[in-house]
Amino acid sequence: MRRDIGEKIRELRIRAGYETLGELHRASGVTVATLSRIESGVQIPSPKTLNRLAPFLKVSVEDLLAAAGYLPEKEEDPNEAAARTIEAAISDDPELLEFWQELVKRDDLQLLFKQVKPLTPKSIKKIIKVIKAIEDAEATED
């Protein structure tokens, strides 16, 4: 829905690792004033602005356009979205990424998907590291 786009962009900005509007401005070129108006709900972003932001927010332009009301929203599996969020958070660590790609297949850890939404990429990375340490310790016991 159009009125929720500001909240969505704020959530995506934080998830993508941009703690401040200034950081996202420096990366995307969209002014801090515009970003502030969008996140506060005062301004609905134009398709052009959404196109500029999408790569930095690590989502498709179509997803942002749908969230802003320019396109019909598509149904998305929440687990798939959470998996993408986790992969984005650990993509800079090949060892963790490889571990995650095996871990994601396990049914007993599907709850992690439901818990990841409010976490920052840094927190997600810490959690995956802890899970890996536990798994490694259990593997050496066996």
Explained architecture:
- The model has no long low-confidence stretch (mean pLDDT 82).
- The termini are far apart.
- This protein has 142 residues and is an all-alpha fold.
- It has helices at 5-15, 21-28, 32-39, 47-57, 61-67, 78-90, 94-103, 111-115, 121-141.
Question: Low-confidence parts, pLDDT < 50 over ≥5 residues?
Answer: none
Total strand segments? 0
Helix tally equals: 9
- The N- and C-terminal alpha carbons lie at a distance of 51 Å
Strand residue percentage:
under 5%
Q: What is the string of helix and strand elements?
A: HHHHHHHHH
Which percent bin holds the helix content? 55-70%
Rg on CA atoms, Å: 17 Å
Q: Describe the sheet with the most strands.
A: none
Structural class: mainly alpha
The coarse silhouette is: elongated
**Please, what is the average pLDDT?**
82
Give a quick set of tags describing it:
mainly alpha; 9 helices
Structure described in brief:
The chain is mainly alpha-helical.
Topology:
Blueprint: H1 5-15, H2 21-28, H3 32-39, H4 47-57, H5 61-67, H6 78-90, H7 94-103, H8 111-115, H9 121-141
